[in-house]
Amino acid sequence: MSNWSFVTNHWNVLTQVAKHPQITMREIAAHLGITERSVHRIISDLEAAGYLTRVRAGRVNHYTLNPDLPLSRPELQDVLVGGLLLHLFQPPPDARRAAL
Description:
By secondary structure, the protein is of the alpha+beta class. 48% of the residues lie in helices and 12% in strands. The protein has a two-stranded antiparallel ribbon with strand order 1-2. A hairpin with a 2-residue loop joins strand 1 and strand 2 (60-65). Helix 1 packs across helix 3. It is globular and about 40 Å long.
């Protein structure tokens, strides 16, 4: 298996938070196989760029995704984060047909 990926850790963290708004940094790190320190840095980057808002409720963080921001690459400025996430989270066409 190759040691590279089509997506970055920033995208992977963003998708985990989008799927599970109350996920912990430890859970994200374990799921992605990266350190908690890396997750903390990535979440800070995503907050600073406006993609995430983090609200602390007691001992738990609750994350809110801003779906209306475009991807950060200049050539992808017409693609909104929310639209891409919706597309990626849809079941494959075969699964949709089976559900009917």
